[in-house]
Amino acid sequence: MSEFSFASLTPDTILDALDEVGIYAESGLLALNSYENRVYQFMAEDKRRYVAKFYRPERWSNEQILEEHSFSAELQEAEVPVVAPLCIEGQTLFEHKGYRFTLFPSVGGRQFEMDNLDQLEQLGRLIGRMHKVAAAKPFVTRPVLGCDEYLHQAKVHLQHSNLVSEAMSLPFYTVLDQVIDKASRLYQSVATIRLHGDCHAGNILWSADHMLTFVDLDDSRQGPAMQDLWMMLNGDRHNQLIQLDTLVNAYEEFAHFEHGQLRLIEPMRAMRMVHYMGWIAKRWQDPAFERNFSWFAQDKYWEQQTLALKEQLAALDEPALKLMP
Description:
single chain
C-alpha cells in the first residue's frame, strides 16, 4: 500500500474495521484535525465516545508503533496523565484491509494556555514525572532526534518537490544551507531519553477538573529532554527566561535537568522549522496536503520562510538562555 494512499479508507472500511474488534459505532464519524494519520471520533453502542486512529501506511513499523503504546502504558501505570491506547483482548494495534489502527478513549478539555504561569508550573512537574519514567530505559526501535532527518533529509524532500520557484530558489536555499550548517554544529550529542517528541500546546489538554493531560505520542522518539520543554517558550528573551525558570524549577521536583541542554534550544527550533517544511514537501502527493496547504506552493510563503530563516540564523548566534540565579 502506498505511503500516501488513504483513498480506500472509506467510511464503510472504517466501520468494518471497528466491528472486527467489537466496537460498534452508533454515531457518524467525525474527522479530527490530523494530516499525518486519519483520526475519527464517534460514539459507540455502549454510549462511550472513542477516537480511532488509522496510521499512515509505511511510516512506522509495527514494532515502532507498539513501542510507543508500551511507553504510554508505562506512563499511565505511573499515574502520569496520558491518553493511552485501549487494550482489547490483549492487543492495542489492529489491522483491516492493510490499514493499521488503534482506539483511544475520547478525552475532552481546553487547550493548554502557554502564557499562564500557573499552568506552566504544573506542566513542568508533569514533564518531570514523564521524564522520570522515560529515563528508566531507552527506545529500541523508534528513531533518535537528529540533524540527518530534521535538517538534511528535510532539505532533500524540499529539493525533490520542486515547490520552491526558480525566482525564490537562490535566496531561500542560500539561507537554508547556512541555518543547516550552523544548527548542525550547535546540536551536539547529549544524553537522550524517551520523549513525547511533539510536546506543544495542541497536544496538552486542560481538563474540567484542572488536570493537564498529554495526548498524541505519535512522534515519540529518543532525544534530549530539552525537546519536550523548549516549545513552551514564546515571546521576547525576557519572557522566555521567566517561562524557562518556571518550567525547570517545577521539572526538577521530579527529574534532574541537565542545564547544558539549554544551548540546544535554538538549534532545535531551527530543526523544527526545517523539518516542518520538509514534512509538507514529502507528503505533497497526498491530496489532503495540496488541498489544505495550497499556500506552500506560493512565492509569498517562501519569501516569508526566507525571512524567518534569516531571523533564526541570527538567533543561533545569540548566547544561549541561562536560568535566573
